[in-house]
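This part of the workshop introduces the protein records we will be handling. Getting from the letters to the tokens is the skill we practise here. An example says more than a description, so a record of this kind follows:
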Amino acid sequence: MRTFLYLRSARRHLWVGSALVAAMVIGVTIGISFMAVTAEAQAARAFTGDHGMVMNYIKPGSTTDFEAVIQKLSEALQNSENAGRREQAAGWKVYRAQEPGANNSVLYVWFMDPAVAGADYAVSTILHEAFPAEVQQLYEQFNGSYTELGQQMVNLELIFDF
């Protein structure tokens, strides 16, 4: 009888231990996948010169989503307690092309004139600072609005000033 109870108890411990190991493996796997997305979303974006431009190729049906996130970005920069962020806002202009962009996209061009030296222009970072509770939803909305062409960052050097 005692052997029977011991085996029954051992099986229960084995089952509980297996369940804990499985939960840990699943948790680590999920954690790693979220870490990769966060790291990708948080990549620093800085300009090396005094002027910069970013070309954003947006899906025609996603302009409202894109512009809504850009409005939140503007709020984040202008209302920041960080003087450097407010300086970024002063030089950051957003334009929408009237003509269709490549692959029938809607082209939005950002001009940073002047670009703030050493400042991080990563949208996800700026939104995270101002709206930490909303940043995941905002980033998904922002990222989902892009075509396969995505975004192109250009450092500009002034050659002539007429």
Notes: Strands lie at 51-58, 92-100, 106-112, 146-156. The radius of gyration is 24 Å.
